Amino acid sequence: MATEARLPRIDFSGVDPSSPGAGRWAAVRAQVVDALATLGCFDAHYPALTPDLRAAFFDGAVKELFALPADAKRRNTYGPDKPLFGYLGGMPGLSNDYESLAISERVEPQSSSAPSPTSCGPTQTTPASGTQTERTTASEVVHGAARRMAELEEAVQRMVMEGLGGGKVPWRDEGVDAARVPDGSEVIRHGTHQDCSMLTVICQHGEVDGLEVQTGDGQWVRYKPSSPASLVVMAGKELRAWTNDRVRAPFHRVVVGGDVARYVAILFALPGLRIQAPAELPHCNDDFMRFCIAQGARHEDKLRDFCGV
């Protein structure tokens, strides 16, 4: 049983991702580094992702997308080289009610409106009778919400590199995942795990909670947003490896109940490259992700098994 609690709250008001070092940057950076080193995640108050944009994104695009027939959703596929992207439903180790649709790489207006099999953008979320203007508007909404989340992630990654003395940011590949967990009594819908990303940014729709995070002493706390402008920023196992265990990658899970579906949008910052390390200790994110998938739903520390941090 989890205890309801607030994650460390960090206010990004007045922090301009395009102007690192200006204004409150240094003070916020100190809070970010401390939160990621101690708990591995925090509640980011980020008013740049406005309530109107959130509502348009979830109610005008995401819900319509998940309402499509399964065959249409399965058109979003990336093949065996990207096993965690595309449409995921009925996956081993996950609740049968869990669904997600993931877009690989940056979300730009042209990619979220292109009528291709690998696109899960608004051309698939608007009715067939919809006009091109409606589809374009939805595309801009999807891109706008994803862009705001990416700006926050970019600011946090720069702060981590500055705060830990790492210098230049070593990664820049991204994926965006929209997930839905349907109605039902309260059960674990997504089991205990750590993310394989460098950083994860989570945008929760409405007041349906469900994210639970394990603290260093083994206690579970349920995330309660501190404001309608809240996003969760969480460190993944790749950032933990890159910082030589100075940043925590927290175990977390999703526990949902009640009669309302839970919708979330998640941005995963993935290296997309080989992390530089001593020659005798190479580390490739793609190899690590394949290792995690092969190990299945075990909750042990897979990073230690893979590279012995």
UniProtKB/TrEMBL annotation:
Highest taxon in the source lineage: Eukaryota
Residue span, Isopenicillin N synthase-like Fe(2+) 2OG dioxygenase domain: 182-269
Classification via Gene3D superfamilies: B-lactam Antibiotic, Isopenicillin N Synthase, Chain
Positions of the UniProt region annotated as Disordered: 105-141
SUPFAM superfamilies: Clavaminate synthase-like (SSF51197)
Polar residues composition-biased segments: 109-139
UniProt name for this protein: Isopenicillin N synthase-like Fe(2+) 2OG dioxygenase domain-containing protein
UniProt organism field: Digitaria exilis
